[in-house]
Amino acid sequence: MNGLIALVGAGEYLPVMNEIDRHLLASVNTNGRAPRVVCMPTAAGQEGDASVDRWLKMGAAHFEALGADVTPARIIDRESANDSQWEAALENADLIYFSGGKPTYLIETMRGSRAWEAAQRAWGRGAVYAGCSAGAMILAEKVPNFRVAGLKSLDGFQILDATYIIPHFDRMRGIWAAYLLGVRRKMKEGQFILGIDENTALVGEVTGKWQVMGDGQVHVITHDSQQAFDANQEFPL
Fold it and tell me: How many angstroms separate the CA atoms of 142 and 151, rounded?
């Protein structure tokens, strides 16, 4: 991925994200045309039509209000992820946004699909990757499987060096306390977990520095330490 990456803890398509998403759109060179955005509700694909439709409508309304040309891509299962009708929109996108839902379902649906391969071509030329909640989690080395209380995990796409990425961190500290304790005991030198608060994004590039944006904090957790970074603070991953 050669463009910006935005890891969002929660709050996709809401007004609280306007400043962050304007920043993402401004990062791509569109030669004066409206930036092309593809909104992907894939992680909510098992939640039914009402949920999928809500995410598609919210994404379209949000980014159209920011001046973008939006394609709401109804990619919700393996069949639609391999449907060739979406390839051109994804390959030519300036920003591809994965909204929230089930992270294991998202990665199982996208891995090796035509949609993911088309999106990779866009990211290779500098398009933005934006992922909220599940959409952020899949870029880590591992994705916790909540069907077994997070006790097992799937391989993530391993775009980032984080062992896990945990969204909703400010709301889930109690739930995650025992889980984090067990994971941290097993972590080796150099491994870390990213915890991202709601209404907050960590924005950066694979090889560069990362900036906290939004209302909350980003947490970097290792075997024996935990640091919290506020909005506008930068640090390398």
Answer: 12
Q: Is the dihedral of CA 149, 103, 210, 15 positive or negative?
A: negative
Looking only at the bridges linking them, the beta strands covering 218-221 and 193-196 are antiparallel
Is the Cα torsion angle 103, 109, 115, 118 positive or negative in sign? positive
125 pLDDT above the threshold of 80: yes
Does 49 score more than 90 pLDDT? yes
| Residue 93 Cα distances to 1, 36, 57, 115, 124, angstroms | 13, 5, 18, 12, 11
The C-alpha angle 131, 132, 138, rounded to 5 degrees, equals 60
Q: What's the Cα-to-Cα distance from 202 to each of 75, 134, 152, 160, 186, rounded to whole Å?
A: 25, 14, 26, 12, 25
Q: How many CA atoms lie within 13 A of 48 on its CB side?
A: 2
Q: Helix 49-65 to helix 18-26 angle, to the nearest 10 degrees?
A: 70
Which domains does the chain carry? 5-229 (3.40.50.880)
d(C-alpha 74, C-alpha 56), whole Å: 8
DSSP string across 170-206: HHHHHHHHHHHHHHHHHPPTT--EEEE-TTEEEEE-T
Helix (H, G, I), strand (E, B), or coil: what is residue 235?
A: strand
pLDDT in tens, 58-69: 999 999 999 999
Q: Do the Cβ atoms of 119 and 94 come closer than 8 Å?
A: no
Sorting pLDDT into bands at 50, 70 and 90, what band is 174? low
pTM reported for the whole predicted model: 0.94
